[in-house]
Structures are given as C-alpha cells and as structure tokens.
# Entry
Amino acid sequence: MSATLKSDREVDATRPLRALGLMSGTSVDGVDVAFLETDGERVSGLGASLTVPYADETRQRIRAAFGAEGPSALTQAAETAVTEAHVLAVRRWSSEAGIALSSLDVIGFHGQTITHRPQKRFTWQIGDGASLAKALGVRVVGDLRSADVAAGGQGAPLVPAYHAALARDLPRPVAVVNVGGVANVTWIGEDDSLLAFDTGPGNGPIDDWCARRAGIRFDVDGVLAATGRVNRTRLGRFAEHRFFARTPPKSLDRSDFTDSWVEGLSVADGAATLTWGTARAIALAAQHFPAPVRQWAIVGGGANNPILLRAIAEETGGPVVTGAQLGWDSDAIEAQAFGFLAVRSLRGAPITFPTTTGVPMAMTGGRLHLP
# Structure
C-alpha cells in the first residue's frame, strides 16, 4: 500500500534512522546502494555500499523508454526491469554487508529518470515503489521530484541538502560538483546558504560517443581522451550555448546535450573534446556563484576519470579535490543522498529550496510506500 508522507508523523524526530539509499543515474550504469544513519540534518554514520551493473537487456529497455511522456508497453517493460534490478541489488547488498533488511527504517528510492521536462511541469522516474516495499519488507520513499516540478520547480538537483551535510566542516564557500550523466553543482556559502543547478553535460555524451565510435561503454580512466587532441574551435562554440548564461535555477534532461557537436572528429579527438566540454561547462557555472569558491570537490562517476579531473582543474583554475580525498565515498554519494532525503521526507523537512530548484518555497516531497 502507499500513503502520503503526511501520514507518517510517528517518526521520532531526534533518533537517527537506519536508511538505505538507491540511485540509478542517467548514465544507466546500474544500481547504487548505500547505507547511512542520519536524523536528516547530520550524518551520524556511513556503512556499506554496493554498485550492481544493469544487465544489458535492462539497459536497452531503459534507453528505449527515454523521452517518453506517457505509459506504453516500452515504459512498462522498462519499469518492471528497473524494479526487479533494484530488488536484486538490495538483496545482494544485504547478503554481502551482513545487514538484515528488517533492521532498516526506510529506503530512499530515486528510480530511473527517463524524461525530465520541468518547463512542461513534467518529470518521470520509473520504478514501482510499492512493489519494492512489498518485495523487501521495508517502507520506501520514492517519487521525490514530482512535487517540486508540479509546484514550478526544476525538480533537480536534489542532492544539495546532503552535500551541505557532508561539507559541514569544509572551508567555505565551496562547490560540490557531481558528475553523472548530467553534471550539477552545489555552492555552499559561509552562512550555509545554498545555490544549486545543473552545469551541463556530464559523462553522458562521452559515454555515448565511446559506445557509438569505439564500441566501449565508457572511457575508462580517460584513456581514450588522453590520446586525443582537444578541438579548441569547437570547444569555444560549445561554450556559447545559451544554457550556460541562463540564470539558475536550471536543470537538464540527459538528451539536452549530445555528442553531435564533435561529429566528424576522430574517435580520440572527439573523446578529448567532449571531456573538456564537460569541464568547461563546470567552470562556466562559477559566473553564477555569489562568491568565489575556495575549492571544487568533485564526486560521482566523473571523479574516477583523471583526465576529466585534469580538465576541470585547468578550466576552473582550481583547487580541485575529489570526494575520496575528503574521505567521502564518491561513488556512493548520490545513493546516500536519497537515503538522507527519505529521512527528511519522513520527518516533513524540506528537500528542495528556491535557490536549488526554483520552487516557490522550501518544500518536502516524495511518496511513502508501506510493505
């Protein structure tokens, strides 16, 4: 069964909860599972995390559903595959971590974004939260973007509140950049003020280029880009895209930036130019910051690409550090964030804000599914 979050006021507002966060990004790599203990304000403990790659068939079904704005046989097949993949991933995490599912207070379920059109007040993350709760025997908070988008917000990014919790002790201002299929930034001021928005393409166009032109899923360690030469003329034209000058809040669908702007280049040159494009877009985000940052902290899949990190340092002027260098588990941060947001949602705390998504007022969101 499902219920709105307003029905769950029995939650002790002071006790840290044992939460599991689930995330599958627009790169469609697989399911990230991560454990944390939190009261929704501070993180009191982090635990085991796990990434379970999607099966090729599941990945194909998801890609076939990209851009859909209504149910069909394609979207139903994709949703079923996504839900089953999440069930299997959580059960595998439980087995490998030695943590019983019955010990969890809540699971935060992002689902799989197939379409994000906030200008139409529409966003769609497929995945059946009710079925997930029933299969796992744990209450699930899902559908975390829809309320924000319905109220006129961008529905993204959702992670700023968690970034702020992680960066509580870092020198401010600081920018936390998550590089997934799309990249987003959270600027955190000295007074804990937040500004967040999507910066532009992340790994998505690079992955697509590698798949189309090199027959590989992604550029491991940036090896392909490292052998290429950046086409500075095309990079300059790319940087003139109107999105970069648009005042935040702003967000992107994965398909809003593609690899088409490097068409005609060699495989290696295209990979290099796309990599620097992602970095240039991140650097251009600084024009919107209320004050310059003291450092850039890079998390997400892009933090594992040393060539992309070099490009970001070159384009921003640094200093650039990775989440791992700060003691964070960069690969697990987004999954952790959705566990964190699930706890905030249970407690009626806001998860989006005017300066992060453009929603008219700070608001909570999500839908609670009971096992």
